[in-house]
Amino acid sequence: MKTPRPLWNPYAAGVALGLVLLASFVLTGRGLGASGAYKHVEAAVLHAANPTWTEENANVAAFFSEPRRSSLDDWIVWLTLGSALGGAVAVFTGRRFKVETVYGPRSSLEVRFALAVLGGVLSGFAAQLARGCTSGQGLTGGAQLSVGSWVFLFSVFGGAYGLAWFVRRQWI
Amino acid sequence: MSGPLSVVLRFSHATEMLVALLVGFGFGFVLERAGFGRADRLAAIFYGRDFRVMRVMFTAIVTAMLGLYFFDLVGFLPLASIGVLDTYLWPHFLGGLLLGAGFIIGGYCPGTSVVAAVSGKIDAVLFMFGIAVGSGVFTLAWDDLAPLANSSARGRLLLQDLFGVPSGIMVFAVTLFAVGAFVLVARIEAAVRKAYPVQPAATPGPKAEGTSPLATEATTP
């Protein structure tokens, strides 16, 4: 098996990530993001189930304001598709692609699966409450020096450090 | 130029979506090369073992901030012409805590899980499914949650407004803060490595799935 290529130096990767974000500001006036794409997907599912209710729900109504266009034909959805594509190209050229489940030596597959779903549910809810995730709120607003984004960044670290001890067996 | 290219050149919807796809491509590519496609590497920061994630994150914020405020200064891209994020104190505080909880419990955040999923990580696919469910729960409960989600709104509030300093000073202070953080975490890593030496080769784990990349990469600067 070919050995994976090394990762980038973290500071170099940080500069590259910052330049992508800056390019996004210059090109589109928007930052980066991800959680918005999940919101569009769940809204599309709810819309398929009950169009009227979903169109009247103030949380997602704006997605359906353009009836001639699919609610999924949106900037953040395309951006996230691009992220998947870019990540795939990077992982294959870096020879790091591997189908596996990642967890520490003291955990088990079942626990990892359950906690992955639970963590996802919490994150999906949290990203809506915070109007963005680590990228859409943390990175984007952090670089803009938005107060809310910095509050968010510190509390992400606070929340994770606060719980780290309780779930340590999953990771270390 | 006095605004984003999409406004100045009046991009069509299709062009704008294509640009979003390309920006996303760069985003995903860099995240993977930064090492964000594995849950254990992301979680390592919360055990003091490897602060790679924080180094990448803060360097990215500082890089983009310097560019953004420089472009604002020279009038190339005025800050007022882009979507500056509004502040909602309680939602940002509580949402941050919850997202941090989701991060350490699930191992990812919404963006990194996309990159991990295309890297073949099954846990990331499950995490993504969870995000859609959690987001859906929020939408379903919107009527009850709206008062909280819209509370403590402060509009466009920037750090320099809060501290009452010129933006240049604030940019400088944030840069210093990041550099200080880099120095601090290097010391923490050294201390943790001394107190809890990782035995990479000694305990490869009973199953290949459980092996951690941290052991071999803990020495990365």
Tell me the helix content of chain B: 55-70%
The largest inter-chain interface, given as chain pair and residues per side, is: A-B, 127 and 138 residues
Write down how many β-strands of chain A occur, each being a DSSP E stretch of 2 or more residues.
Answer: 0
**SSE order of chain A, as H and E?**
HHHHHHHH
* Count of alpha and pi helical runs of chain A: 8
Low-confidence stretches of chain A: none
Strand order of the largest sheet of chain B: 1-2
Range of strand content of chain A: under 5%
Description:
The complex is a heterodimer of chains A (172) and B (221). Chain A has 172 residues and is mostly helical. Chain A has a domain at 103-172. Chain A is 66% helix and 0% strand. Chain A contains 8 helices and no strands. In chain A, helix 6 packs across helix 7. Chain B is mainly alpha-helical and 221 residues long. Chain B folds into 2 domains: 35-82 and 163-221, no CATH class; 85-157, no CATH class. Chain B has helices spanning 5-8, 13-34, 39-43, 52-73, 89-106, 110-118, 122-140, 142-149, 159-163, 167-195, 214-217, and strands at 87-88, 153-155. Chain B has a two-stranded antiparallel sheet. In chain B, helix 2 (13-34) crosses helix 6 (110-118), helix 4 packs antiparallel against helix 10 (167-195) and helix 6 packs antiparallel against helix 7 (122-140). The longest helix of chain B is centred in the last third of the chain and has 29 residues, at 167-195. The interface between A and B is large, with 127 and 138 residues.
Notable characteristics:
heterodimer, A: 172 residues, mainly alpha, 8 helices, 66% helix, B: 221 residues, 2 domains, two-stranded antiparallel ribbon, 11 helices, 2 strands, disordered C terminus
Present the secondary structure layout.
The complex is a heterodimer of chains A (172) and B (221).
Chain A: H1 10-28, H2 35-49, H3 51-56, H4 75-93, H5 109-129, H6 134-144, H7 147-164, H8 168-171
Chain B: H1 5-8, H2 13-34, H3 39-43, H4 52-73, E1 87-88, H5 89-106, H6 110-118, H7 122-140, H8 142-149, E2 153-155, H9 159-163, H10 167-195, H11 214-217
Antiparallel strand pairs in B: 1-2
